[in-house]
Write a structure and sequence with these properties.
alpha+beta, CRO Repressor, four-stranded antiparallel beta sheet, 8 helices, 4 strands, membrane, DUF421
Length: 149
Amino acid sequence: MEIVIRAAVAFIILWLVTRASGRSTLGELSSFELILFVVLGDLVQQGITMEDRSLTGSLLAVFTMLVLAAGLNYANMRWPKVGKLMQGRPIVLIRDGVVDRKALHKERIGLDELSMLARQSGIENYGSVRLAILEASGKISFFTQEAKA
């Protein structure tokens, strides 16, 4: 039973860490961040199972994590308010060509990164952007003035 409790606590902490890391980092991880998350998983495993190196202990920890993940997915699907709390809401970064610098700062997105993503979407200047939305997945959706017509 101790492994189940440790796995549940680790699950909650990992969920909080990934939420705190910001949406843009979840969208595309750098090599360093990927390695960091893999190492973090290994460190958490040691804390969950402690000295228990048995197959039963490992499977119990994995099963607990899977049940909690499935439970969160079900809650997100069943109750939309829970989904918004867990996954977050889309955030408007640009509206009618005006960049919301507060939103960029809050989400830890630099203006240079936003410019690069806009260029990759074929947008030359912010004036042509009707709406740019940071999705809960970490991706940014751009809607131009031409797309409105």
